[in-house]
């Protein structure tokens, strides 16, 4: 596919924001070259298993992508192809489900894959239907790597797409739950993402009124441990939140620990073992205007944290997130801002809390988007004397669906 | 209010708009400077020193290299902040249950 007419790659350095850059590259069709990926790390230079797995996933949902590593894995060249979705004959089975197996060494939660996948899906040619399976799928939030849980993706991120006019046929099924396994590695869960609403351009949005929190919903999950943990987490979280919102519903989900093939050398052939034992809670606050704030806490795999602390921690984290203000939380900001930048050539506006905007993630997203040819963001103070929120104006690129053939 | 202190007001939107696309600084430097935590960025010699010493420091906190969607929270600090009455009262305005007319009525519900 790499014809001589393709533009020269945009250069980046460092291992941070790798996924974000790959996503924008795929959406805009600009090739990128990333160098110095953990080049000064003595223990694990180059790409890590979860990043390679993401590249594989990217390869399966596109047609004609070119991915080249250097010998050490510290340099990566990526020429995006067309986003085909899970089309038959490109890795998907006859029912159109693309199976993606995560490696056992994976330390990231599955939301690490889901969030970028959801960003790509609206622009693909066909519906996207990916089943995440294997010994590396962690559906809970991960305390060590800071990924959100699958429940938060479903209840706090996917509804955001509605304001962009992307709402039909989107489903995230949690088939088997899992917490991080020993040493934060692996899980053994199973998650299926169906994203069936493809658009030409996402709508221009004006998300200016955060409204007031009217309800809090949540999911407490326990995998392979007693259901009493759920009750204790819910009790503690409600203790903090009830004075604010009486309208608090926290569901309880109990499941047994997933069994995965035992990979150790001493094990009998075909032996299985349980991993991914633990518990956690995901809380989402919804405002009267549809703004969402979320919090996620899970027990660390080494244990030693009582469920009360997890529940209360999540509740405090939720209050903290709400207090930062704006229409989008820090978790949702990359999704919203990227979709806005990919919208039609019109000014979209979103109100963000000062502390959400002023994070290095958002600043680097702004820079990356500009490197890909989007125009700079306009910032101004929100008029009302609320609490110093900032209105961010983003001009869309009007590129549209890359799945449709350009030129 | 803006004209009051000329330049030493941290966290101003205008400043962030200017710093955001300043490619000479890394995003974390931008944030530090914007929040006013970094006073000696201006001086050139200091800057050079800092660059020199930054390398080993940056590799030391290895996990800062990874992308996190949830920032690290200090549970103790959060708990302190959100059991404080004033903070809770201030946050109450963001909830639909808040009664904007009469204030400080059900303030002692926490705890």
Automatic annotation (TrEMBL), chain A:
Domain RNA 3'-terminal phosphate cyclase insert: from-to ranges: 209-323
User: Where does the record place it?
Assistant: Nucleus, Nucleolus
Q: Which GO terms describe its biological process?
A: endonucleolytic cleavage in 5'-ETS of tricistronic rRNA transcript (SSU-rRNA, 5.8S rRNA, LSU-rRNA); endonucleolytic cleavage in ITS1 to separate SSU-rRNA from 5.8S rRNA and LSU-rRNA from tricistronic rRNA transcript (SSU-rRNA, 5.8S rRNA, LSU-rRNA); endonucleolytic cleavage to generate mature 5'-end of SSU-rRNA from (SSU-rRNA, 5.8S rRNA, LSU-rRNA); regulation of rRNA processing
- Gene Ontology CC annotations of this record: 90S preribosome; small-subunit processome
Q: Which UniProt keywords apply?
A: Nucleus, Ribosome biogenesis
Query: Which Gene3D superfamilies would you find in this protein's record?
Result: RNA 3'-terminal phosphate cyclase domain, RNA 3'-terminal phosphate cyclase, insert domain
- Name the UniProt record assigns to this protein: 18S rRNA biogenesis protein RCL1
What's the source species for this entry? Coniosporium apollinis (strain CBS 100218)
